[in-house]
Amino acid sequence: MPPCSPCMNLSGTHFMKSLSHRFKLNLAQLHLTAPTAQNSSLDPLFNLQKYKDKNQLNQILAQTISTGLLHNPFNASKLVSTFALSPLPGTTCIARLIADRIDGLDSYTWNTVIRGYLQGESPKKAILIYAHVRRKGLKVDSYTVLYVIKACCQFSGDREGGQIHAQILKMGFSSELITRTGLLQMYGLFDEIESAQQVFDESLERDLVLWNALVAAYAHSDHPYKALSVTRAMINDNMRPNGPTVVSILSVCSSLRALRKGKLVHCYVLKNLDNIDVYVSNALIDMYSKCGCLVSAHLVFQKMPMKNVISWTSIVNGYTNNNNPHEALVLFIEMESAKLPPDEVTMLGVVSMCSKLGSFEFGKWIDHYVEQHGFKGSICMTNSLMDMYARCGNLKKACQIFDEMDKKTLVSWTTIIQGLAMHGHGMQALVRFTQMQREGFRPDSVVFLSIISACSHSGLVNEGRECFRSMVEDYGIQPWMEHYGCMVDLFCRAGFVNEGFEFVEAMPVNPDAIVWRSLIGACRNQGNVLLARRILDHLLILEPNYGGNHILLSNLYAMMGEWDNVEEVRMEMGVRGVSKPYPGASVVELC
């Protein structure tokens, strides 16, 4: 392993002088009294935890070296552990330097060095330390491998995780429950669900933590029904679900939009959990919000004795995602009044809220807020602000943000193309699309949907045809129903209704009602009554009880002057109990 510092190859007094020079120590100015007896010599070491300043720790290190206390394995172990676990920057590297020069340090001491790198968010260095310890032939224990498993999880090292698993099997730690739990959690995080299940199946002893790890693995790996099945098996094994179990199951209910199951889980929580912690409450808020039950979500939120930033973020995003941006804004202002600083996730939700409000003034205010609180450097935040300005009608500002970005992602290109398409700037969207391809970005389904939509809104029929052909033939992307719908809209807007109908009939999948309705609208606008009646037959079979279809048929008869048929359609709507759909609405902001 490469040394952390040039000091590693020094010895004796040179090692002490090098440390003194590197960390700017002045041994002559030490305020610590030199030891006179064996017991008193250990006093500074026994009080290491009270030192919060790096200079004081460095002074203790210098005194320990100068007095020879560092040669005592007990003193050295205590010193290494203190430096390794100190929250001060750079101390873990010092701990590693000291540990490398001392023979006879136990596995606990080396474990603290690995933990130190984990706490300092340097998982790769933690794994390198583990490899260094193994090369030196030093003993490791189950906690060592557990820390290494956590390191693999921190930087998504699936290859390293597999190697660690193999070493665990060779070293005989696989029978320990804590190790198997760590491996299961690691495989669940890497979405290697078969390996996670195998680790569980090979466990002779199973406690609640192991069961929870398996439930969480299935819940977070897009296997919601399997997570429910494992939960039932856990209950049959006489394991009583606790808070972590409930959090995993509520995430499953959220993904399935299973409100009834979520309410059953809520009842279980109220009856069986003595202490409903903030994690369970946040999961309940998220579940109710995603199921569209905002009243229950807000009730859970109000009853929380202590709220954290995730609680506020969940309820704000809940109202935003359920098209209640004004209520979300009120909650964000309450969060500000509670003196709880938002994080980046909160701010992304607030920016999305401003996008749905469509208010230019609120958009400027939130942009200033984001810059003032230091959130503007993130690519995700920049993309969100660009989308917000485009939706609020300030396309010039959106393009300015895009052009000033140092690093662009596929999401950045998609966002600006969508913004241009939204405002009918089809040619500019095509220019950005071509530029994106020149810079090496491979367009995906979403980008093609945006560019075809841009062509549709600008009447660029030939360009739209070419984009659809390129998507299928050049990039091998299977079109979604939305792509087909955009192409039909492209033909209809340009007046090519018959070509649009031929395109629909040639589709390899059955068209949905939206595609048929686009054609009917075009037929009505162009007076093509015969084709419209043919299409309506398909539409009424697909959605016999949708009021909008009957209104289309009624309007069609009215165009033809067949008023008896108009009255018949209206009477049939009354008999069937079919009502006219809600009208659309627009909002205009007065500055």
Describe the structure.
- The structure is a single chain.
- With 591 residues, the chain is mostly helical.
- It has a domain at 499-580: Tetratricopeptide repeat domain (Serine Threonine Protein Phosphatase 5, Tetratricopeptide repeat).
- 70% of the residues lie in helices and 0% in strands.
- It contains 34 helices and no strands.
- The longest helix is centred in the first third of the chain and has 14 residues, at 158-171.
- The protein is elongated and about 105 Å long.
- Mean pLDDT is 82; it is low at 1-13 and 15-43.
Short account of what is shown:
The protein is an all-alpha fold and 591 residues long.
List strands and helices in order, with pairings.
Layout: H1 12-22, H2 38-41, H3 43-46, H4 54-66, H5 73-85, H6 91-101, H7 107-119, H8 123-135, H9 142-154, H10 158-171, H11 177-189, H12 193-201, H13 208-220, H14 224-236, H15 243-256, H16 259-272, H17 278-290, H18 294-303, H19 309-321, H20 325-337, H21 344-357, H22 360-372, H23 379-391, H24 395-403, H25 410-422, H26 426-438, H27 445-458, H28 461-474, H29 481-493, H30 497-505, H31 513-526, H32 529-542, H33 547-560, H34 563-576
Helix pairs in contact: 1-4, 5-6, 5-7, 6-7, 7-8, 7-9, 8-9, 9-10, 9-11, 11-12, 11-13, 12-13, 13-14, 13-15, 14-15, 15-16, 15-17, 17-18, 17-19, 18-19, 19-20, 19-21, 20-21, 21-22, 21-23, 23-24, 23-25, 24-25, 25-26, 25-27, 26-27, 27-28, 27-29, 28-29, 29-30, 29-31, 30-31, 31-32, 31-33, 32-33, ...
